[in-house]
């Protein structure tokens, strides 16, 4: 059985856009760069040729990786989920009970996670600890700095 990966519709769209760019722009560009470098003669000492081949190898590997992820993506529609508890796709406002600091996180698939944009992976320890919790629930999570306590302030599926 093929393992599926949960993903938002936006996350799948981004993967498809990256794949299309690699196939339609990057791949033809690197093939041309290799052909141009070949015209410069001795390939054993041709840095442009080796750099282009390395880039081509990266592009081809990334294309295979993206095609695999897209095939195995399971798009989850948060609007069809129980919005009374924390689940995939939820935007959750938490309070760190030690510092009283509030943080907002959106729970997304592993390939979409980006802590700079407050997108947290479904497989992250913080996320695992808050799954199925409700507003006002307090939960603990083990962090590198020790055990932390959080309270859920709100759950939204916007």
Mind explaining what this structure looks like?
The chain is an alpha/beta fold and 158 residues long. The chain has 2 domains: 5-75, Transcription elongation factor, GreA/GreB, N-terminal domain (Helix Hairpins, Orthogonal Bundle), CATH 1.10.287.180; 78-156, Transcription elongation factor, GreA/GreB, C-terminal domain (Chitinase A, domain 3), CATH 3.10.50. It has helices spanning 9-38, 47-72, 125-130, and strands spanning 5-7, 73-75, 91-96, 102-108, 119-121, 138-143, 146-156. The strands form 2 sheets. Strands 5-4-3-7-6 form a 5-stranded mixed beta sheet. The model has no long low-confidence stretch (mean pLDDT 90).
Helices and strands, with pairings:
Elements: E1 5-7, H1 9-38, H2 47-72, E2 73-75, E3 91-96, E4 102-108, E5 119-121, H3 125-130, E6 138-143, E7 146-156
Parallel strand pairs: 1-2, 4-5
Antiparallel strand pairs: 3-4, 3-7, 6-7
Helix pairs in contact: 1-2
Any idea what the CATH superfamily of the largest domain is called? Transcription elongation factor, GreA/GreB, C-terminal domain
- Span of the ends, CA to CA: 32 Å
Q: Helical region count?
A: 3
How much of the polypeptide forms β-strand, as a percent range?
A: 15-25%
- Mean pLDDT level: 90
Proportion of helical residues: 25-40%
Radius of gyration: 22 Å
**CATH architectural name of the largest domain:** Roll
Q: Write down how many β-strands occur, each being a DSSP E stretch of 2 or more residues.
A: 7
């Amino acid at each position: 059985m093929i393992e599926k990966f949960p993903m938002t519709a936006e996350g799948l769209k981004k993967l498809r856009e990256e794949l299309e760019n690699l196939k339609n722009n990057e791949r033809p560009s690197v093939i041309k760069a290799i052909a141009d470098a070949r015209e410069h003669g001795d390939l054993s000492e041709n840095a442009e040729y080796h750099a282009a081949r390395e880039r081509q190898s990266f592009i081809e590997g990334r294309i295979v990786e993206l095609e695999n992820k897209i095939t195995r993506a399971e798009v989850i529609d948060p609007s069809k989920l129980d919005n009374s508890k924390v689940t995939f796709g939820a935007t959750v406002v938490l309070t760190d009970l030690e510092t009283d600091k509030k943080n907002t996180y959106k729970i997304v698939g592993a390939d979409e996670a980006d802590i700079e944009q407050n997108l947290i992976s479904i497989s992250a320890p913080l996320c695992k600890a808050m799954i199925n919790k409700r507003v006002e629930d307090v939960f603990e999570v083990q962090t590198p700095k020790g055990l932390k306590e959080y309270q859920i302030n709100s759950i939204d599926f916007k």
